[in-house]
Amino acid sequence: MDKKTNKGKKYLTTITPKQQKFIDLYCSKYGELSATECAIRAGYEKNSAHSRASELLDWRQYPDVCKEIEDRQVGNRQVWFVDKEKHLANLTRIGNEARAKGQYGAAGKMEELKGKVQGFYVDRNLTITREVTTEDLNDKMRNIFKSKEDMEVFNKSLADELFEDDKKDD
């Protein structure tokens, strides 16, 4: 059995081949596969994979596995990190490639996104809600209809329009 050992520590750490496969999958497919899926692909039983994955990610139970994962993730975080300049450079590159292929819609979108990153565009949504009281509603109706007769004429025409099918059946 191929074991990885760390000398010079108070305890001897070992990582089994199955654990090594879990580590490889978990780190290479981070964000794509769940820990349970990684455990299944590493060879753990399907019905206990969730528990095994949870145990393997628990530093109290498997400190050597967690340390290996943490060491690998440090490198990944540097690759994943996106700062404003890197983001703008990627958008510019994508826009240039799109323009070269004649994909002007995509190139235009990249310009828009570059503007958003730099704060040129601000999306604002404003929703105002207000409780309407019966008194407010009555005041609005009085403003719409200048007399009782005007309201009655409107209500009759609205009722006729809404229920014209009923008249046809009669």
Mean pLDDT figure: 86
Number of strands: 0
> What is the end-to-end distance?
91 Å
Assess the beta-strand content as a share of residues.
under 5%
Label the structural class.
mainly alpha
Total number of helices: 9
* Shape descriptor: elongated
Radius of gyration: 33 Å
* Helix amount: 55-70%
Write the element-wise H/E pattern from the N-terminal end onward.
Answer: HHHHHHHHH
Characterize the biggest β-sheet.
none
Tally of domains: 3
The CATH C-level class name of the largest domain:
Mainly Alpha
Structure description:
- The structure is a single chain.
- The protein folds into three domains: 17-80, Orthogonal Bundle (Arc Repressor Mutant, subunit A), CATH 1.10.10; 84-117, no CATH class; 134-169.
- It contains nine helices and no strands.
- α5 (84-100) packs antiparallel against α6.
- It is mainly alpha-helical.
Task: Describe the protein's topology.
Elements: H1 17-28, H2 35-42, H3 49-56, H4 63-80, H5 84-100, H6 104-117, H7 134-144, H8 148-162, H9 164-169
Salient structural properties:
170 residues, mainly alpha, Arc Repressor Mutant, subunit A, 3 domains, 9 helices, 64% helix, 0% strand
Summarize the structure.
The protein has 170 residues and is mainly alpha-helical. Helices cover 64% and strands 0% of the residues.
